[in-house]
């Protein structure tokens, strides 16, 4: 186990926050660059998703909207215990499904009766958003909100009045619960539902109905540091699959287009482009990889035997964080309102692996070396290593197009690994541990002089 000081350093370490290396002349930014809120978000690397609502008690993935609110009875709900479980896996943020498609609100909203107020749980005085946001803060974890645009309960869904309701819900969440780091708008839009008893199919025009630009302006006004996630951003993009896997390459820049080639909007994006993004695209729009630790997003007893193993989570870490994206891992609370032991065991082993592997580099380039297109680091005592981590200083844009890593063995440079996109982070895992007197990184292709913020070698725990 890591000691308390290095664990704290690991958890609070800010990637790329160091001063720029010393240059003869300060380099000018290239292309799109991240905003301040995006820079903060990039530093999180791994965040947790909590899918929790009436579905947890009805064994559904999508509630129809007519379920009795009193079914929500998480008798042993303990926000601190949930957040403690997430901390085992080094989560630096947590996003809660404050309202999923069935319309049940996990906070006592003034906009609808369909909320925790209509459940006898805690005598109608419960507030899951309050408790989880406070527990996250106590654990130094950021808190974010998922508010489903599609509402299968609301009688007004499909009319302009519903947009006002949605914005009031967002306003409550963004004013009453402290700092919010991410606002998550999923792309499932319209279909059949209860709709106040109408029990009909309501389709909406996803390109115009929600009037997203004005909703996003509201988010900016209420929580200027929050990033907004959707299929198309404006701050963070969906990675295009729900398997948690970024593309290789995965560019942090992206110019999304709609399914039919026209303008893109949430719920209407050519998802095949999302994993890779757009090389030197005009918008800084990095990818977030959402995936569940279980087959479903919500907790189902029969899926406990299929919780992802630590090995699967470790692979996902390399396929998301390792390609410069953020890993958003869903860990659904059970009917007690707690995280199951099976999920906790996987989170713990995975979390320990990541902390131990990256606690101490075998070797790393000094700040002075990082300003050069070719970097050579000496390996103390030929220590074996099998992980290479490279970061660009993204404040100057995503510049590097290709790199080669080589090991000096028996008097010659031998190729070890190569990559194209780097951006905020690229982690290359070798098939087997390597030993060498020194290791070299060569930037073989770049759109502007490379400015790295890290080149380091590690050994897997
Ligand atoms: C989707 C939803 O339909 C799923 O239920 C889940 O919430 C996923 C993260 O987003 O759009």
Notable characteristics:
461 residues, alpha/beta, 8-stranded parallel β-barrel, 4-stranded antiparallel sheet, 18 strands, binds beta-L-fucopyranose
Summarize the structure.
By secondary structure, the protein is of the alpha/beta class. It has helices at residues 4-12, 36-42, 55-58, 79-87, 128-138, 160-176, 212-222, 310-320, 341-359, and strands at residues 46-50, 93-99, 142-147, 182-184, 191-193, 200-202, 227-230, 236-238, 287-292, 326-330, 363-364, 374-378, 385-392, 400-409, 412-419, 426-434, 438-446, 452-458.
What does this 3D model show about the protein?
- It is a single chain.
- By secondary structure, the protein is α/β, with parallel strands linked by helices.
- The chain has two domains: about 5-30 and about 360-460, Galactose-binding domain-like (Jelly Rolls, Sandwich); about 35-355, Glycosidases (TIM Barrel, Alpha-Beta Barrel), CATH 3.20.20.
- The protein has nine helices and 18 strands.
- Strand 5 and strand 6 (about 200) form a beta hairpin.
- The radius of gyration is 23 Å and the shape is globular.
- Bound molecules: beta-L-fucopyranose (FUL).
CATH fold descriptor of the largest domain: TIM Barrel
**Strand-and-helix sequence, N→C?**
HHEHHEHEHEEEHEEEHEHEEEEEEEE
* Main sheet summary: 8 strands, parallel, barrel
Bound molecules: beta-L-fucopyranose
For the termini, the CA-CA separation is 11 Å
Strand order of the largest sheet: 1-2-3-4-7-8-9-10
| Number of helices in the DSSP assignment | 9
The stretches of 5 or more residues where confidence is low (pLDDT under 50) are 1-17
Globally, the shape reads globular
Structural class: alpha/beta
């Amino acid at each position: 186990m890591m000691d308390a000081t290095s664990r704290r350093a690991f958890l609070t370490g800010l990637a790329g926050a160091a001063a720029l290396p010393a240059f003869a002349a300060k380099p000018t930014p290239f292309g799109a660059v991240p905003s301040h809120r995006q820079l903060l978000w990039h530093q999180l690397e791994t965040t947790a998703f909590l899918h929790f609502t009436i579905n947890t008690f009805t064994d559904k993935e999508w509630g129809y909207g007519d379920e009795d609110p009193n079914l929500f009875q998480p008798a042993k709900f303990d926000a601190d215990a949930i957040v403690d479980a997430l901390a085992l896996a080094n989560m630096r943020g947590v996003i809660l499904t404050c309202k999923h498609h069935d319309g049940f609100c996990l906070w006592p909203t003034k906009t609808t009766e369909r909320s925790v107020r209509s459940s006898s749980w805690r005598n109608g005085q419960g507030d899951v958003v309050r408790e989880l946001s406070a527990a996250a803060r106590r654990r130094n974890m950021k808190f974010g909100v998922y508010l489903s645009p599609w509402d299968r309960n609301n009688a007004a869904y499909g009319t302009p009045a519903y947009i006002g309701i949605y914005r009031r819900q967002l306003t409550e969440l963004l004013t009453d619960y402290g700092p919010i780091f991410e606002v998550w708008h999923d792309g499932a839009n319209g279909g059949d539902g209860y709709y106040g008893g109408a029990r009909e199919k309501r389709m909406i025009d996803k390109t115009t109905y929600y009037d997203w630009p004005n909703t996003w302006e509201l988010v900016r006004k209420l929580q200027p540091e929050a990033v907004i996630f959707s299929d198309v951003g404006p701050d963070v993009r969906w990675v295009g699959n729900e398997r948690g896997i970024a593309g290789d390459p995965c560019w942090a820049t992206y110019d999304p287009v709609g399914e039919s080639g026209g303008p893109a909007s949430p719920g209407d994006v050519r998802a095949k482009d999302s994993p890779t993004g757009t090389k030197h695209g005009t918008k800084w729009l990095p990818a977030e990889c959402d995936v569940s630790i279980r087959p479903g997003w919500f907790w189902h007893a029969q899926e406990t035997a299929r919780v992802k193993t630590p090995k699967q989570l470790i692979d996902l870490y390399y396929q998301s964080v390792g390609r410069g994206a953020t890993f958003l891992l869903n860990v659904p609370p059970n009917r007690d309102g707690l995280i199951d032991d099976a999920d906790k065991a996987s989170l713990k082993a995975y979390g320990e692996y990541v902390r131990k592997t990256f606690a101490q580099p075998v070797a790393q380039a000094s700040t002075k070396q990082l300003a050069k297109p070719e970097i050579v680091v000496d390996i103390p005592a030929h220590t074996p290593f099998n992980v290479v981590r490279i970061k660009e200083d993204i404040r100057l844009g995503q510049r590097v197009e290709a790199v080669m890593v080589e090991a000096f063995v028996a008097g010659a440079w031998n190729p070890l690994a190569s990559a194209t996109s780097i951006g905020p982070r690229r982690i290359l895992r070798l098939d087997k541990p390597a030993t060498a007197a020194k290791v070299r990184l060569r930037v073989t292709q770049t759109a502007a002089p490379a400015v790295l913020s890290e080149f380091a070698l590690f050994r897997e725990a």
